[in-house]
């Protein structure tokens, strides 16, 4: 079967019938309808599949393509909730002849997580199990051995009968052709152990990798009983979310609205188009349709001459075509904001390690703040996202592996993104390459020592899919010409709310550390405090690259249709971190930071300085507010490096502990602030820093408390084009950003600077 038919993540056409009211849950409800889809494991967004790249629809069966352990499918729309009521779950199961080691198939239920969120539970394995492994039928540790030969095709039925504060469970295996029982096992468990997500599972234990031989198949998955609650609002797909921008094109096109619909992979026989409609004068008007890109599974619309003065509802429509010639229209709705005329309020976010998924405190704050713009500066995922490893080659499986991880980003932030324009930059982990030095798109150097090498490790086709999923909705790029390996480029600008935002890739052309010698075990780390880092500043080393340098020079001088500027890139142009990984993990220099190469760093700042732009960035997992110096301290732009949404690898800026020389500590007199030379000798004035606690796990009972302790959160910038000021707020992970409490923010924030301070005309603590 063509692997393009392979899918996905979320599945099922539609639940027939859609349930209305709790009384419907007493009926037997068929969940799957996989026999009505076109050779894939996705449709109505009613299931989460772990991991999506390991599942395929074949002849109506949900077929696991590997015998690796714990491959599973969760129901999104139904939960086991009221354990004082009875329930039944059943499914047909098929065991392939090629299965070399049978580690069982069946159900996991009562799936719980440390937080009460069905999305978090989709990645949890804390629950009860019931299934058949070889000839052993089991519920948890209660087992019975079946007599006679067990057919390869059978039906499993799990029933739950309440009994006070317990539930009596019975699992029966039967012949699906005539219903004849082949055996059963019973167990009694505490009622609280039953409530939560439920799923079907292929291979409960065994090889955690991805063996080539197939796992189990499932079909005719059904539930009944009043114990189930129904949550249609949890549907995630087939249009999972959208991202859009609005920009003054400063041409005959006027304002241009661009929007991308993000779908899970479809089959070749499926509808390959998405439609866009907007509401005008109370009626829906179709603006056209767009073809799905069958690598990135995105459909992008570009609408010129947009009415930027009017707030406009939109809907994206995907028409699902079933094999019986019927059709279901699925809609995703949102709002195109009007162009801001007062102060523009933007959220700035970065780095979301999945231990904090789904980051609800941050996402909910974004929705409550109702911001004019959202900016994600990179690392929308990490390689570990969702478990089950990474696939590096070939390109198509690698893309599917990437998409499954990327969808967790959309699942978390789709609500605020449906109503606010979004700029979304890819960074190193998005292309499965921590600490990337892009070398202008060159392939990864296989001969360099260790992982710290220039070039791209992943196939160019996969990198391009990453760029499409993140940036296809951005305003028109400055240059359509790809770089090496035909890897796409995405730098350009957006004019919105009287502000011009430069959108820059500060790693795509950056030189790799193998060009220099740090004399340590890693090319990119300088651990010796006495090492002379000036030796690392060799002629010809690049940071932004010649193409982007020329663009930034022109952008800084172009003041058409705006009066203020913002420079958006991935990371801060200084080494504002002294310790990596632990409070004892001192590094003098990290070549992954924007502080190296020094000459290229200074050139980038020199080109930026005439723009008087605030530099907004992320990446470091350590929030900082600093001002660059080139010829002297504080002669250049300010940088706001925002906190990680969910900080993984921690960093600290602890110059006071190291006895580093400093001058001109700000008036607030906070520790670790003032004018410094970073480990590369770059001039940097650190006004505020948001260090994590030294032992983040201490006292953290949930993922959200851990994220908070690791100095996670988000930034907000208010740009006032009348006063010519930038006001920066820096919110902690666990807070209500709307209640005005001082403890909501990291020490030193909020801060307001004037536009001209971004070229060294300083007013703050002058």
Largest sheet: 8 strands, antiparallel
Structure annotation, total helices: 8
The averaged pLDDT comes out at 93
Shape descriptor reads globular
Radius of gyration: 27 Å
Low-confidence spans: pLDDT under 50, at least 5 residues? 1-24
Strand content: 25-35%
| Fraction of residues in helix | 10-25%
Q: Report the end-to-end length measured between terminal Cα atoms.
A: 69 Å
The chain-level structural class is: mainly beta
Number of strands: 43
Give your account of this protein's structure:
With 766 residues, the protein is mostly beta strands. Strands 1, 3, 4, 7, 12, 13, 14 and 16 form an 8-stranded antiparallel sheet that branches. The chain has an 8-stranded mixed sheet with strand order 28-29-31-34-36-35-40-39. Strands 2-5-15-8-9-10-11 form a 7-stranded antiparallel sheet. α2 packs across α3, α3 (395-417) packs parallel to α4 and α5 packs parallel to α6. It is globular and about 85 Å long. The model is unreliable at 1-24 (pLDDT under 50).
How are the SSEs placed, and which strands pair?
Layout lengths: L28 E2 L16 E4 L4 E4 L2 E4 L6 E5 L2 E3 L6 E8 L10 E8 L5 H4 L4 E8 L2 E4 L2 E4 L7 E11 L2 E9 L6 E10 L6 E6 L14 E8 L3 E3 L8 E10 L6 E9 L9 E8 L2 E9 L6 E6 L8 E10 L5 E10 L7 E9 L7 H10 L3 E4 L18 H23 L4 E3 L35 H12 L20 E5 L2 E5 L21 E2 L18 H13 L6 E8 L7 E2 L8 E2 L7 H11 L5 E5 L4 E7 L8 E4 L2 E3 L4 E2 L2 H4 L15 E4 L5 E8 L12 H7 L3 E8 L4 E8 L18 E4 L12
Parallel strand pairs: 25-26, 25-37, 26-27, 29-31, 31-34, 34-36
Antiparallel strand pairs: 1-16, 2-5, 3-4, 4-16, 5-15, 6-17, 7-12, 7-16, 8-9, 8-15, 9-10, 10-11, 12-13, 13-14, 18-19, 19-22, 20-21, 20-23, 23-24, 25-41, 28-29, 30-33, 32-38, 35-36, 35-40, 39-40, 41-42, 42-43
Helix pairs in contact: 2-3, 3-4, 5-6
